[in-house]
Amino acid sequence: MQNYSTTAATAIGFISIVLWGTLALLTKLTDGAIPPLQLMAMTFFLAYLGMQIRWLYRGESGFRYLKQPKKVWLVGIGGYLSYHFCYFAAMARAPAVDVSLIAYLWPLFIVLFSALLPGENLKVKHTLGAVLALTGCALIITQGGNGLSSEYAAGYLFAAACALIWSSYSVLTRLISQVSTGIVGWYCLFTAVLAAIAHFIFEQTVLPETSIQWIGIVGLALGPMGLAFFTWDYGMKRGNIQLLGVLSYSAPLISTLLLVLFTDELLTKTLLVACLLIVIGSVIAGVKFEKKAHIKT
């Protein structure tokens, strides 16, 4: 039976999923004018600054979180940097819709990989819920598209790497649950520095020109590329990892609904069916089946 603390941690982890649902809308505010590595460096650095302000408010510097084994840094910085590198590489080599579909296999992988963790059991309801939610996610992303094409094979491989990297990072986080979530602040800083170095090597710097672009950048740093990583770390370490994996499929649904509300995107029948599949999958994965006691006569 799931205790209160596990339920609370799962709810905190779900905050990340909601925030990731705002990613497309906030990115749209930047007008696509900011190079991806530069945007990554800016948002992760702002996320670090936010955590540094919190540390100072609490009367600490955050340096105590730096004393960690090498495996902690390998999991954290390796996960952040390699995931985003593969994501941008995939986007440059294949259509965005195809990349999103393949990369969004990571929630299903989380559900499956969680069976390898000590004390975790993968149940049929988790797998069934994940598959239904994945189907709904695929409907949202493809919107009745024509499928994948072999000419984008390199991009598909990078997208598949995204799914494996983020799911592996998420599950491995469980194995270092004794490490405070405060370490994520340093993950953000080091990732920002490495992204900035790559930006200056491979990209041309573009300064934001409008207040709307700055709103998008700050919004990304505070939400899907900031706070979301802290709440995800907490949820993965202390929450119901299988349920969070299935609930992650609601991120593209939230994203699409926000675009429908605030842009010229249209609400379609496909979106409604996808919504139903994701909700049903999440309910199946999260419902508790109680065994009834048999009374002997």
From TrEMBL:
GO CC terms: plasma membrane
Transmembrane regions: 7-27, 33-51, 72-90, 96-116, 128-146, 152-172, 184-202, 214-232, 244-262, 268-287
Any Pfam family matching the protein: EamA
Organism: Neptuniibacter caesariensis
Protein name: Possible transmembrane protein
Matching InterPro entries: AA-Vitamin_Transporters, EamA_dom, EmrE-like
Domain EamA stretches: 12-141, 154-284
Keywords carried by this UniProt record: Cell membrane, Membrane, Transmembrane, Transmembrane helix
Membrane topology annotation: Multi-pass membrane protein
Compartments reported by the entry: Cell membrane
PANTHER family the UniProt entry points to: INNER MEMBRANE TRANSPORTER (PTHR32322), S-ADENOSYLMETHIONINE_S-ADENOSYLHOMOCYSTEINE TRANSPORTER (PTHR32322:SF18)
Principal location class: membrane
